[in-house]
Predict the structure.
Amino acid sequence: MATLRIRDAAELLGVSDDTVRRWIDSGVLAADKDASGRLVIEGRDLAALAVEQARTPRTRLGSASSARNRFPGLVTRVVADTVMAQVEMQCGPFTVVSLMSSEAVRELGLEPGSVAMATVKATTVVVETAAD
């Protein structure tokens, strides 16, 4: 069973080390000590907490959709020519880049500082693990 140190668990969940420690202290997350005496968290427990903590973003943006990967964020950059545009958004700790028509950018009023929803529905998702 994979175990993670507090620092690694915090990074994966996008929270601080202190938040993970508070979750352990309050019983929200279980932790054990490894052979070196450091607190570690079972990967399965962390995954369960991540799913439990995940919520559909509450926002006035968007409408009903079959896409489950919805990321509210802030437009940080728009590069447009006469036909196509590249729109960059900061969605929490993630940068999302979209290519769309310049016409769509104009119709949506997208510019740096705009609040928007990035919705991703992909037919291919690549999953990687660290090399041993």
User: Anything to note?
Assistant: The beta strands are 3-5, 32-33, 39-42, 69-80, 84-91, 94-101, 115-120.
